[in-house]
UniProtKB/TrEMBL annotation:
<dbReference type="GO" id="GO:0005047">
    <property type="term" value="F:signal recognition particle binding"/>
</dbReference>
<feature type="binding site">
    <location>
        <begin position="214"/>
        <end position="218"/>
    </location>
    <ligand>
        <name>GTP</name>
    </ligand>
</feature>
<dbReference type="GO" id="GO:0003924">
    <property type="term" value="F:GTPase activity"/>
</dbReference>
<feature type="binding site">
    <location>
        <begin position="132"/>
        <end position="139"/>
    </location>
    <ligand>
        <name>GTP</name>
    </ligand>
</feature>
<dbReference type="GO" id="GO:0005525">
    <property type="term" value="F:GTP binding"/>
</dbReference>
<dbReference type="InterPro" id="IPR042101">
    <property type="entry name" value="SRP54_N_sf"/>
</dbReference>
<keyword id="KW-0963">Cytoplasm</keyword>
<keyword id="KW-1003">Cell membrane</keyword>
<feature type="binding site">
    <location>
        <begin position="278"/>
        <end position="281"/>
    </location>
    <ligand>
        <name>GTP</name>
    </ligand>
</feature>
<dbReference type="InterPro" id="IPR000897">
    <property type="entry name" value="SRP54_GTPase_dom"/>
</dbReference>
<dbReference type="GO" id="GO:0006614">
    <property type="term" value="P:SRP-dependent cotranslational protein targeting to membrane"/>
</dbReference>
<keyword id="KW-0378">Hydrolase</keyword>
<keyword id="KW-0342">GTP-binding</keyword>
<dbReference type="Pfam" id="PF00448">
    <property type="entry name" value="SRP54"/>
</dbReference>
<dbReference type="GO" id="GO:0005737">
    <property type="term" value="C:cytoplasm"/>
</dbReference>
<dbReference type="InterPro" id="IPR013822">
    <property type="entry name" value="Signal_recog_particl_SRP54_hlx"/>
</dbReference>
<keyword id="KW-0132">Cell division</keyword>
Length: 330
């Protein structure tokens, strides 16, 4: 089976839902088992149950601030409805978390690609700059996204601007070949801004639809990080004036609170416009998606829920919450 046959043959809605359910299994089971113990022998949601729920959400890496907002919402609902049975708690939790996320910036689009990936009025390619520390799955995410774009008929150029590690260039080259994308690279240690310039120049000359720029994954001090990313931006704008159209931060969901810290540091260093949260399969820390989305007010565009090339999913907050807390979106 060819790489693109994966996308063509699957019933994407059902298959992606099943993959999401499977990928969040550990997080879901951890939350369910703890809630079951918290409500054992109780008939209604009372202060003791809410205290237990608060601890459960914090240990699921939802984050303290977001957890407190969720608890406040449930307390208000208990006060309004006077009596809520503990058998309703999962449904209530799902409803309130979904409502909370609905107040964050829109995390979904009408496109099943996550972004519209449209050329600008001058016919320039859509430019996506991807940032994140080493080890979070940044290059893999770029490769999976390139495959998804190519399967949708988009012409994709990848820029290997993470010149700090030779392995990063080699890894991106493998992904470019698998995805049918064109790779633009220089030698290890080359100026990242120069690679970005070459990538956009080549993509523009070829009339490509999308250019994705991989950047170095070092969390050096904020000033150096800011200077490097600003230089890449400025050089790209010599080719495509509006570039980059999006700056996507990739975070490793399995690291829990470390992901919060990385989001904080990168947000301080550059303007982040979207998030991809990877490695949610096999971890009980799936709640981190809720906390990061709500606290940083940055849309989550993609989540990674498996090793497969098609396991990078466009984030659907209602489907995600339903999979995490039980029940399915209609």
């Amino acid at each position: 089976m060819g790489i693109f046959d994966i996308f063509r043959k699957k019933d994407s809605g059902q298959a992606e839902r099943a993959t999401l359910e499977s990928g969040l299994e550990k997080s879901r089971e951890g939350i369910f088992s703890k809630i079951s113990r918290a409500v054992a022998g109780k008939s209604k949601v009372d202060e003791e149950v809410l205290d237990e729920l608060e601890e459960i959400l914090i240990t699921a890496d939802v984050g303290v601030d977001t957890t407190l907002r969720i608890i406040e919402r449930i307390e208000a609902r208990v006060a309004r409805d006077k009596y809520l049975g503990t058998d309703e708690l999962n449904a209530i939790l799902r409803d309130e978390v979904t409502a909370l996320l609905a107040e964050a910036p829109a995390a979904t689009t009408s496109s099943d690609l996550g972004f519209l990936f449209e050329k600008d009025k001058a016919g320039n390619p859509f430019v996506l700059m991807v940032v994140g520390v080493n080890g979070v799955g940044k290059t893999t995410t770029i490769g999976k996204l390139a495959a998804r774009l190519a399967a949708a008929g988009k012409t994709v150029y990848l820029g290997a601007a993470d010149t700090f590690r030779a392995a990063a260039i080699d890894q991106l080259e493998v992904w470019a070949e698998r995805a049918g994308a064109r790779l633009i690279k220089q030698q290890m240690g080359a100026d990242p801004a120069s690679v970005a310039f070459d990538t956009l120049s080549a993509a523009k000359a070829a009339g490509a639809d999308v250019a994705i720029i991989d950047t170095a994954g070092r969390l050096h001090n904020k000033v150096n990080l800011m200077n490097e990313l600003t230089k890449i931006r400025n050089v790209m704008q010599k080719v495509v004036p509006e570039a980059p159209h999006e700056v996507m931060l990739v975070l490793d969901g399995s690291t829990g609170q470390n992901a919060f810290e990385q989001a904080k540091q990168f947000s301080a260093a550059t303007q982040i416009s979207s998030l991809a949260i990877t490695k949610l399969d096999g971890t009980a820390k799936g709640g981190v998606v809720i906390g990061i989305s709500e606290q940083f007010r940055i849309p989550v565009r993609y989540i990674g829920v498996g090793e497969g090339i098609d396991d990078l999913q466009v984030f659907d907050r209602e489907r995600f919450v339903a999979s995490l807390f039980g029940g399915r979106r209609a």
